[in-house]
């Protein structure tokens, strides 16, 4: 069965408009290229009860879950505790993480910084030579940091774990409006119910008015559906196929 | 009581990484400036059952709800039906919207285009001279389109409806790491439990290492909390306050 994913962004700073998230959009693009279907993104506040509920729900609903943010040493970093509560386990300090933090901070380590050595009991630590600090995996939940550079580095170190059958995509650009192609698209998805078909109008593009997207994991099926669509559309409305 | 908001983005194209959403980040910034607290953002697929569940939940949990996307004439535009199901009402064709569409398309109107005249039964239509097409309001749910230019124009026409007591913000930039200020922040939020306090590390900024944000709707309270924080931090660690 193809893999599904859910993404939870823990971030008051996103909800309050202070920053624009870059991690979910990155992850959606990367996972799609790997053949993984992202089914839901939630952005929630830095509140441990909300995080616990959301992680439990996502963990049950999707094959893999990614959290972003809330893993530093300060009072508002409560993702680890939320993930632990979702799994019904305690938060414990991991000796290897303590050693890594002590090496990093040398003599200046504080109790607060040692918070970053905490993991949900029973979590795995995924290490790799390309990242300084391992990634925490609790059940099917990957706990990633909010800082985009580190988020990407950590995901990139893990990416091959998620590779699945590719999802193939064809784009058809047309010069007529959505209202003029809607009936053809409805007929197409009725005939090809397994087809993923999207229709995206453009209001300020001189080249085309609508981009139609057709997707499937089955390339031969996709080609048949594409041929059928091209037959149904007025020939002079097709700007290009890509 | 201060207003809370939730945002639902209906968008396969976001989940599949084809486009990066611009509407939620716009709305978070604008609503915050108006004094409205966004509590949750969900990005979900163009599937009517999922939309109905999410809209019903958000509508119960937050004072106002905004949906973005899924309101065109094609098979994948199912937001109106989802909002109607969430409210337990039928979808009906509104005569004023039919007239507007007929005027817009002139003789070329199709049955599919008339789908854009559909609303959940009992919804209000909010008109304004600055937008061509009214906005649908069903209970506390504002139904907005996904196209960013139109989304913004429609929101801007409505914005004064949402104005509440402002949320004041102070930023403190410090030159020491999060691990070194965590204890002071924990003590501060213990003493000022109503304070919204965030801590955001920067790993590649030469000017500072952490931005601390303090927020409240009560300016005098905020000033007291700020003075307390500045007293607690090492004086030579404070880069600037803004």
Kindly report the greatest chain-chain contact and the residue count on each side: A-B, 67 and 67 residues
Number of helical segments of chain A?
9
Helical proportion of chain A?
Answer: 25-40%
Structural category of chain A is: alpha/beta
Shape of chain A: elongated
Uncertain runs of chain A: none
What's the assembly state of these chains?
A: homodimer
Strand arrangement, largest sheet of chain A?
2-1-3-8-7-6
How far apart lie the N and C ends of chain A? 28 Å
Largest sheet of chain A: 6 strands, mixed
Strand fraction of chain A: 25-35%
Which value, in Å, is the CA radius of gyration of chain A? 22 Å
List the defining traits of the structure above:
homodimer, 242 residues, six-stranded mixed β-sheet, elongated
Structural features, described:
Two copies of one chain form a homodimer. Chain A has 242 residues and is of the alpha/beta class. Chain A is built from nine helices and twelve strands. The first copy, chain A, has a six-stranded mixed β-sheet, sandwiched between helices. Chain A is elongated, with a radius of gyration of 22 Å. At the A-B interface, helix 1, helix 2, strand 2, helix 6 and helix 8 of A face helix 1, helix 2, strand 2, helix 7 and strand 10 of B.
Write the SSE topology.
Two copies of one chain form a homodimer.
Chain A: E1 4-10, H1 12-15, H2 23-34, E2 37-44, H3 48-61, E3 64-68, H4 79-87, E4 91-93, H5 95-105, H6 111-114, E5 118-120, E6 124-126, E7 135-138, E8 141-144, H7 148-158, E9 168-174, H8 178-191, E10 196-201, E11 210-216, H9 219-232, E12 238-241
Parallel strand pairs in A: 1-2, 1-3, 3-8
Antiparallel strand pairs in A: 4-5, 6-7, 7-8, 9-11, 9-12, 10-11
């Amino acid at each position: 069965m193809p893999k599904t994913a859910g993404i939870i962004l823990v971030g008051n700073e996103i909800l309050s408009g202070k920053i624009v998230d870059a991690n979910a959009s990155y992850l959606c693009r990367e996972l799609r290229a790997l053949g993984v279907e992202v089914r839901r993104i939630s952005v929630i506040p830095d509140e441990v009860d909300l995080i616990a509920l959301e992680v439990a729900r996502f963990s049950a609903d999707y094959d893999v879950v990614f959290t972003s943010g809330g893993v530093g040493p300060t009072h508002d970093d409560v993702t680890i505790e939320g993930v632990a509560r979702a799994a019904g386990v305690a938060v414990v300090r991991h000796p290897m993480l303590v050693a890594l933090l002590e090496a990093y901070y040398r003599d200046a380590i504080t109790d607060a910084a040692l918070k970053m050595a905490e993991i949900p009991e029973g979590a795995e630590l995924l290490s790799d030579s390309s990242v300084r600090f391992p990634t925490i995996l609790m059940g099917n939940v990957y706990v990633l940091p909010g800082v985009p550079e580190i988020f990407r580095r950590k995901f990139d170190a893990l990416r091959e774990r998620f590779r699945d059958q590719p999802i193939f995509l064809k784009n058809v650009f047309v010069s007529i409006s959505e209202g003029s192609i809607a009936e053809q698209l409805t007929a197409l998805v009725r005939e090809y119910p397994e087809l993923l078909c999207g229709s995206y109008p453009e209001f300020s593009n001189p080249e085309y008015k609508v981009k139609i997207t057709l997707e499937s994991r089955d390339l031969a099926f996709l080609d048949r559906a594409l041929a059928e669509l091209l037959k149904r559309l007025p020939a002079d409305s097709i700007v290009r196929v890509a």
